[in-house]
Design brief:
It is a single chain. With about 280 residues, this protein is α+β, with helices and mostly antiparallel strands. The protein has two domains: about 110 residues, 2-Layer Sandwich (D-amino Acid Aminotransferase, Chain A, domain 1); about 150 residues, D-amino Acid Aminotransferase, subunit A, domain 2 (D-amino Acid Aminotransferase, Chain A, domain 2). The chain contains eight helices and 14 strands. Strands 6, 7, 8, 9, 10, 11, 12, 13 and 14 form a nine-stranded mixed β-sheet that branches. Strands 2-1-5-4-3 form a five-stranded antiparallel β-sheet. Strand 9 and strand 10 form a beta hairpin. The chain is globular. The two termini are about 25 Å apart.
């Protein structure tokens, strides 16, 4: 299924001197298109994705915003590839001298379409088992929260072979604070309250994380973004993780510890399916 467009041109090429390739100078979003049974074509949480990209681009001094042409292109992809993954990648383009960026960015927009992993359906039904990654994340507040193009830490995390019976890695930072799974945000339930790791020093502030928090708050669930550690995981009543392709799913095991599914997970997951905007 994989298809690629560069600046809305199908199968066009990327300049080998593009700063995204040379320095990881850019950012990206991973989005899910509506299932084929939906009434209209579209991308789940599209406006939130584009807003996060715009906010991230300001932090990187790209000053990008989605054009009407790009929006039409994304809707075309959603119509043509229902129930799929659409990736939108932005780079600063070509220019500048070495690390020094050009005064005006000539932004490259790369869109691609991919199949959603088949095992995600199993995870959504049965939950996942996580084990602690031997790789820790560096703390860098200037980049924290942004889904920037330099994902070498995640590459190193995934370079390790998962032990038998585990589905993904649970990741801490260099000071021992819980941050995320290798490709998802984390929620911990304790005494009927929900806690999610603060993303002000490391990690990605996911769009689905934001949507899940909004739903929880609307349902009267207390949610706190705060510093968490391994003891927080050990003492949890329940654990969940979220990303834009999975929605919200239960974590049923972390290392040697097992957890019961949270009583609200399925209801929130179903409500997320109605956020077709």
């Amino acid at each position: 299924m994989t298809q690629v467009w560069v600046n809305q041109q199908h199968m066009a090429s990327v300049n080998p001197f593009d700063r995204g390739l040379a320095y990881g100078d850019g950012l990206f979003a991973t989005m899910r298109t509506y299932p084929s049974t939906s009434i209209k074509a579209g991308i789940m949480l599209l406006d939130l994705h584009l807003t996060r990209l715009e906010q991230g681009s300001k932090r990187l001094n790209l000053n990008w915003s989605a054009s009407s042409q790009l929006r039409k292109h994304l809707i075309y992809l959603a119509s043509s590839y229902p129930n799929a993954c659409v990736k939108l990648l932005l780079t600063r383009g070509v220019g500048g001298r070495g690390y020094q960026a050009p005064e005006i960015a000539n932004i490259t927009e790369i869109t691609s379409v991919h199949e959603i992993p088949e095992h995600y359906k199993t995870w959504q039904k049965s939950g996942v088992a996580l084990t602690t990654s031997p790789v820790t994340l560096a703390r860098q507040p200037l980049l924290a929260g942004i889904k920037h193009l330099n994902r070498l830490e995640q590459v190193l995390i995934k370079s390790h072979t998962l032990p038998t019976g585990f589905d993904d890695w649970l990741v801490y930072d260099t000071q021992g604070y819980l941050i995320e799974a290798s490709m998802a945000n984390i929620f911990i339930v304790k005494d009927n309250q929900v806690f999610t790791p603060a993303i002000n020093q490391a990690g990605v502030s996911g769009v689905m994380r934001e949507a899940v928090i909004d739903i929880m708050l609307a349902q009267g669930v207390a949610v706190y973004a705060t510093q968490l550690n391994s003891n927080s995981v050990l003492m949890a009543d329940a654990i969940m993780m979220s990303n834009s392709l999975l929605g919200l799913i239960d974590v049923v095991r972390v290392d040697k510890n097992s957890y019961q599914p949270w009583s609200h997970t399925q209801a929130i997951a179903q409500q997320l399916q109605t956020l077709l905007s």
